[in-house]
Automatic annotation (TrEMBL):
<dbReference type="GO" id="GO:0009423">
    <property type="term" value="P:chorismate biosynthetic process"/>
</dbReference>
<feature type="binding site">
    <location>
        <position position="310"/>
    </location>
    <ligand>
        <name>FMN</name>
    </ligand>
</feature>
<feature type="binding site">
    <location>
        <position position="45"/>
    </location>
    <ligand>
        <name>NADP(+)</name>
    </ligand>
</feature>
<keyword id="KW-0456">Lyase</keyword>
<dbReference type="GO" id="GO:0009073">
    <property type="term" value="P:aromatic amino acid family biosynthetic process"/>
</dbReference>
<protein>
    <recommendedName>
        <fullName>Chorismate synthase</fullName>
        <ecNumber>4.2.3.5</ecNumber>
    </recommendedName>
</protein>
<feature type="binding site">
    <location>
        <begin position="284"/>
        <end position="288"/>
    </location>
    <ligand>
        <name>FMN</name>
    </ligand>
</feature>
<dbReference type="InterPro" id="IPR035904">
    <property type="entry name" value="Chorismate_synth_AroC_sf"/>
</dbReference>
<keyword id="KW-0285">Flavoprotein</keyword>
<comment type="function">
    <text>This reaction introduces a second double bond into the aromatic ring system.</text>
</comment>
<feature type="binding site">
    <location>
        <position position="39"/>
    </location>
    <ligand>
        <name>NADP(+)</name>
    </ligand>
</feature>
<keyword id="KW-0057">Aromatic amino acid biosynthesis</keyword>
<feature type="binding site">
    <location>
        <begin position="229"/>
        <end position="230"/>
    </location>
    <ligand>
        <name>FMN</name>
    </ligand>
</feature>
<comment type="subunit">
    <text>Homotetramer.</text>
</comment>
<dbReference type="GO" id="GO:0004107">
    <property type="term" value="F:chorismate synthase activity"/>
</dbReference>
<keyword id="KW-0288">FMN</keyword>
<dbReference type="Pfam" id="PF01264">
    <property type="entry name" value="Chorismate_synt"/>
</dbReference>
Length: 361
């Protein structure tokens, strides 16, 4: 199961091609809308003001409402591509932005906005993952969810999945939403940006997905999450907190009716344990700021760079559905690979431990 995307943020359209999609999955263009809305810009004052409809057209790979097994191509037309500041920015490098490294690599500057480095590209990952989420749910009873786990220094005081979809921050504690609104309003007025942490989980993943050395499930998840714009860190389970733990704490005890804890985040030796899969992702603060910062122009001269386009004060806010999408894409690929090598789960070895309770993510 392989997804590639094409298109630029300010080109006529963006799209993706999904190869290796099993035949027979019911797919309708309307099914993409809900997740694309969750990710889209211009829906609340806390994200970029660019207003795209993000309507998906199915170009190939679906006949009479079902996937055919041939390449599935999806297209979203750009309808609000106009970044007035990019004429000037095209001659400057923003501090902390990919425009410097793109120029060093390709020597070509696309004056139409962020081009391929824009987070607009993630639209198509979310679209592709609608198919993966559906297949995982129907075929394996796997459920994928995510929430914001930190904005700047603020962390959730409580965890309630029911709250997550009821506020613009994917925040799991309804009591803190007013505080976040105030924080984000002040941040936006100041012209600065802030980082965030997203946590995504998958429930129902059977034991056995992944590979022991090459293609470890955790390695593939880390690569997938790292391929999202602005990501600077990925943790599986306790992640970097494991550094300060003792083995007697970190090891997840086992009992006939399930594991006793889930510090490992559902993966041991690159292979799923059957527990909840837990992945946390760190997003850096947006680099395109209207506050002046030291940068360079195309000739290497020092310039004060000011970006006045439509940018997110916290890219992490819209990243929850994107991280869910990458989790779904990796899991669908792993499920198909596992079946190709070992047959269906339970065929090779009997399942000896029930899944542990989901935990507090
Ligand atoms: C983005 C910059 C802004 C955002 C964009 C991501 O776009 P523009 O290229 O118009 O400056 O609006 O996000 C989207 C358009 C989207 O759909 O996610 C960036 O630099 O990453």
């Amino acid at each position: 199961f392989r997804v590639t995307t094409f298109g630029e943020s300010h080109g006529p359209a963006i799209g993706c091609v999904i190869d290796g999609c099993p035949p027979g999955i019911a797919i309708a263009a309307e099914e993409f809308a809900a997740d694309l809305e969750r990710r889209a810009t211009g829906r609340t004052r806390h994200t970029s003001a660019r207003r795209e409809s993000d309507a998906v057209e199915i170009l190939s790979g679906v006949y009479e409402g079902r996937s055919t097994g041939t390449p599935l191509a999806l297209l979203v037309r750009n309808t609000d591509a106009r970044s007035k500041d990019y004429e000037r920015i095209a001659r400057q490098f923003r501090p902390g932005h990919a425009d410097y490294t793109y120029w060093q690599k390709y020597g070509i500057r696309d004056p139409r906005g962020g081009g391929r480095s824009s987070a607009r590209e993630t639209t198509m990952r979310v679209a592709a993952a609608v198919v993966a989420k559906k297949w995982l749910a129907e075929r394996h009873d796997v459920r994928i969810r995510g929430h914001l786990a930190q904005i700047g220094g603020i962390v959730p005081a409580a965890h309630d999945w029911a709250a997550v979809e009821d506020n613009p921050f994917f925040w799991p504690d309804a009591a803190q939403v007013a505080e976040l609104e105030t924080y984000m309003d002040a941040l936006r007025k100041s012209g600065d940006s802030v980082g965030a942490r997203v946590t995504v989980v998958a429930d129902g993943v059977p034991p056995g997905w992944g590979e022991p050395v090459y293609g470890k499930l955790d390695a593939e998840l880390a690569a997938a999450m790292m391929s999202i714009n602005a990501v600077k860190g990925v943790e599986i389970g306790d992640g970097f907190a494991s550094v300060a733990q003792r083995g007697t704490v970190h090891r997840d005890g086992m009992a006939p009716d399930g594991f006793l804890s889930n510090h490992a985040g559902g993966i041991l030796g690159g292979i799923s344990t059957g527990q909840q899969l837990v992945v946390s992702v760190a997003f850096k603060p947006t680099s395109s700021l209207r506050l002046p910062g030291p940068g360079l122009d195309l000739d290497g001269n020092a310039v004060e760079v000011v970006t006045t386009g439509r940018h997110d004060p916290c890219v992490g806010i819209r990243a929850t559905p994107i991280c869910e999408a990458m989790l779904a894409l990796v899991l669908m690929d792993q499920a198909l690979r596992h079946r190709a090598q070992c047959g269906d789960v339970g065929e090779v070895a009997p399942r000896i431990a029930a899944a542990a309770p989901g935990g507090d993510h």
